[in-house]
Amino acid sequence: MKKFFLSLLCLGLITMSCSNDDNDPVVEEEEIENPEEEEETVEVDIEVQNFFWQTLNLYYFWQGDVPDLADDRFDTQTAYEEYLAENDDPVALLENKLLFSEDRFTFYSDDYTELVNSSAGISKSNGLQFGLGLISGTEDVFGFVEYIVKDSDASGKDIKRGDLFIGVDGQTLNLDNYIELLFGNNDTYTLNMADIVDGGISPSDKKVTLTKTEGLIENPIHVNTVITSGDKKIGYLMYNQFVSGSEDNLNSVFADFIAQGVNELVLDLRYNPGGRGSTAAVLASLIKGTNTNDLLFKTIYNAKLQAEFDSSLTDNYFVSTTGTADGNSGAALNTLNLNKVYIIATEASASASELVMVGLEPYIDVVHIGGTTVGKNQGSVLFVDDPEGGNVYDPERVDNINPNVQWGLQPIISRVENSAGFSDYVDGLIPDIELSEDVTNLGVLGDANEPLLARAIQEINGNGARRNFDVILPANVVSSSKLYNPRNTTLLLNNSVPVAKIPVSEKK
C-alpha cells in the first residue's frame, strides 16, 4: 500500500440536489469553522482506514452513537493517525469499532465496481433464484427454485420454478455449509435434486450442473399480464428490483394496462429486495397518481447533516415523469390513478419495496398479501475514496478515485418516513392477509391459479366462491439467493436526494 501524508478533515459542507428532470446539480456552499489542525504529519499506511473513518464521521446515520466516530475523538492530527495505524486491518476497524451495533445493512467491497454493478442489476450469476428452508426437525437445508433469470446459464438447463434441491456436489446442505457451497468461490457446482414424497423432502437421482457468468443482467420486470375475472380487468406486475433505467419500461407496462382497461392492480414484490428510491417514486406514481405536491417520503439524516438540510432537500414527492437518468426519456407517466392496490410481499421483500407500500398507505388502500417483510426503513449511498468529490461515488469522476483504494463503502446514512410520519417498521410490515408460499405448490408466476395471485384475485372479487388456500409445506425462508447478502436489500439514495460532500485536502 502506498504511504502518504494525512491531514484531518478540512471543511466546507456542500449540499447537492437535482430536480427529477435535470441532472445538473445546484450547488450551495456554506463555510464551517475549521478545527485546529496540527502542522506535523506522519507517514503511515492507512489509506483505507482513513477513507472509512472520514466517510462515516460525516455521513453515517449513527455517527453520534459510535464513540470512535465522535468529532472530538482525537485531540491532534498525530493521535488520529496513530489510531488508524494501530488498527491495521481496515475490515476489523470497520466492523469492530466504527459500525453501530444495531446496523444490519451497511456493506462494503474491496472492489467498488461490484457494488455499482449490483445496484444496476448486473451480477456474476448462473441465473438461479432460490429460497432456502429448514427440513423439519433437523439442521439440514433444502432449496426451492423461485424463478430463472432469462438468458442465464440456468435458463438452458433442466430446472424450473418449484424444483427442489438438498445438496451441492454430493454434500448435503445444512446450516454450517450452505453459504460456502452455494455462495462461495465455486463458479460451477452441481445441485443434487429432490422430490416431495409423502409430504416430505426426499433425494432424487437427478443432478443439475450450473455455471456462474460475469455480467448477467436481469430484467426487473419479470412478468406483466392482464387477467379478466368477472367484470374485473386485473393488471399483474411482478417487479424484482428497483433499477434505475427501468422506469420507461415500467411506464410502457402501465400504458398497456390502461389500453386494456385495467381497473385493479396486483403488484408482486415477493422477491424484490429493494433498489433506487427514485424508481420507487415512479412506480408509486404510476399506481396512485402524479400530483407532485403529495409527499411520498422524508429522508432523515444524522444530526450533523440534518442541521444543514431544509425540507426542500429532504422531502421526496410523487413524480409526473420517468425522469432522464440512466437513459430514461422523461416521458409523462401513464398512471392508473387507483384508490386501492393489492401488493404481494413476503419475507424476501425489503427496502424500496417496503417504501412503496408505506409511501402509498396515507393516500390509498394498500392490501398486503403474503408474509412479514424484512423491515428496512433506511437508505444508503455508495462511497469511494474521492476526497475532492466528498467520497460520494460519481460515474463522471471515476478517474479521481484514489488508485490505491478501490474499496466501495455503502453505509446506512438515513432513515425514511412517510407523509404521516410513520417509519417504525424495523420488524417488518405485517400482512393484511397472511399466506405463505407452499413448496409443494409454488404455481406459475402470473397465472391466475398461482396461490398468492389467486388469493389477491379472490379478494378483488369479494366474498364469492372461496378457494382453499391450505399450505402443506410453507416456505419458511432461512435465506435466499438474494437475501444472504445485505448489499441486495438496499434503498439507494441518488442525486435526486441531497448528499453532502466534503473536500478532503492532503498535504504532500
UniProtKB/TrEMBL annotation:
Q: Where is the signal peptide?
A: 1-21
GO BP terms: namely: proteolysis; signal transduction
UniProt key word Signal: yes
Family annotation (InterPro entries) = ClpP/crotonase-like_dom_sf, PDZ_sf, Pept_S41_N, Tail-specific_protease
Q: Which UniProt keywords apply?
A: Hydrolase, Protease, Signal
List GO molecular-function terms, semicolon-separated: endopeptidase activity; serine-type peptidase activity
Ranges of residues in domain Tail specific protease = 233-380
**One Pfam family matching this protein:** Pept_S41_N
Peptidase S41 N-terminal domain boundaries: 47-107
Tell me which SUPFAM superfamilies the record gives: ClpP/crotonase
Per the record, the domain of life is: Bacteria
PROSITE patterns recorded for this chain? PROKAR_LIPOPROTEIN (PS51257)
Keyword Nucleus set for record: no
* GO CC terms of this entry: outer membrane-bounded periplasmic space
Q: What is this protein called?
A: C-terminal processing protease CtpA/Prc, contains a PDZ domain
User: Could you tell me which species this protein originates from?
Assistant: Maribacter dokdonensis
